[in-house]
Amino acid sequence: MPLVRLDMIKGRSPAEIQQIMDLTQQAVVHNFEVHPRDRYQIVTQHEPYEISMLDTGLGFERSDQILIISVTSRARSRQAIQKFYAEICDTLAQAQLVKPCDLMVNFTINGDADWSFGFGRAQFLTGEL
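and the corresponding structure tokens:
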């Protein structure tokens, strides 16, 4: 945990998608100090007409290689979240997987009672985690 959803327009190769997933996980582990096997990722590819990501009036142009990363997690510090945003942007740009203007990241915080990792138990509440 956290749960990471990656939404993108169809057309990337399986190797590119795997690299995006791997680099995202590295940033999660580094910034949120989670175990490397705390890896929960979902990739959804969309037809170009099924996804819209404008600029909220910020004045930059997007390409057809947009990537939206949505993170659902227990509470993290503001500093850790901001470092995550910067690291994932820099890392993906350096790997030439996404331009900084084509990346949007959002963070949703929930609590211990909101997670069950299997067997119908809330492991954060039962003390298993």
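(Above: one complete record from the training split.) The mean pLDDT is 96.
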